[in-house]
Amino acid sequence: MNGDDEAVAASADPSLPLDWRFSQVFGERSAGEEVQEVDIISAIEFDHSGDHLATGDRGGRVVLFERTDAKNSSGARRDLEETDYPLRHPEFRYKTEFQSHDPEFDYLKSLEIEEKINKIRWCQTANGALFLLSTNDKTIKFWKVQDKKIKKICDINSDPSRAVGNGTIATSVNGGVPEANNSFIPGGISSLRLPVVVTSHESSPVARCRRVYSHAHDYHINSISNNSDGETFISADDLRINLWNLEISNQSFNIVDVKPAKMEDLSEVITSAEFHPTHCNMLAYSSSKGSIRLIDLRQSALCDSHSKLFEEPEAAGPKSFFTEIIASVSDIKFAKEGRYLLSRDYMTLKLWDINMDSGPVATFQVHEYLKPKLCDLYENDSIFDKFECCISGNGLRAATGSYSNLFRVFGVSPGSTETATLEASRNPTRRHIPIPSRPSRALSSITRVVSRGSESSGVDGNSNALDYTTKLLHLAWHPNENSIACAAANSLYMYYA
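Structure for Serine/threonine-protein phosphatase 2A 55 kDa regulatory subunit B, as requested:
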């Protein structure tokens, strides 16, 4: 059985381990090439169909990609079965880009607001147009991207009998002006060359900002999430979550407020928030203490209380200085059907069943080999890195990033022991890190380690040197296929299985 046959078999049987392969790369840098800070990708998101992909960078730009192989793979199922049809991997091409945010300055607070895109979320399409939300630290924008026919300007000799652009010249010889007035034109009116606008059959995508949602957050926005009703969305900062209507930009409703009466009493902050994929009245948000709260908007206007609280039972034994830091949840994602919730903290990836709040149903160690290096990670601030996570459309697998541009894929279905360690490069399986064969249920207590070493290097489970400066923070899973897009600095890598 060759590689394509194995990949087809894995696709047919979801329980088989996937064979991940390189698909595409955009913005690949050559060896030794310096990466500009503004070009580093800071957000990735597939749309609901998987036919479009959006990325945002630290320069405030949003770049859109569209799928090109979908229209080529159409055909009767019987025809495809009768043909020796190789596995077709998704192919994307550059569509357009636009400047979403610019650097600003808050004169009231003497605060610089950087243009970096924190999050991108796709909205429902309408009339062939694409809609998406993008946000930096303070301002959310609603964008419409639509193909417009290109209008070209060409010079031709004025001819009263010919149409000009989409209209016609007046029926008189000089367009209605008395002939005597043309005496000042050398050679007469026929010698003039006038610009004419001609609408071509070609089209080009044009981005237009439809709404700007601003002045609603005192702290940095860390999350935005669309509601399944298609009309509202939430935005979250460290202490508050606001509910917006897409059509109303000058008003929002504060639905969660964790700010204490005295700021010195502050013990935790909001780190991520996400709407339930099907129930428009439910949303979840995570905190820096490692807990996840599920709230129901039908209970009250201000959701001070939660419907359910998901948190890891406290492990017995002494706690270290780093215990609370590494417990902070950096990202949460609902599975497509809405029953399971995926969360990522610094060391682990956890899967939760929203019907069972006693603890996670599975815990996956992402980079266990970093435990002895927590002191160094704290000194160079790497311990505060916010890694994102994603879950497959069928809910059977999850992925998250690590250092040295590595990312991990785990089988999360009951009884699955599938794991894969991939590198964001043209050869994703070049490096492998051995991990435990079964996911553990709990994160054991971490004792403080006083070892000293290099601030930017370590050793993984395979004795490979680690680079803490190259970290894979952002990735997204295709909603319908086994395809992952991930960002390594300014490069966008795509893989399929």
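Confidence is low (pLDDT under 50) at residues 82-86, 163-176, 433-457.
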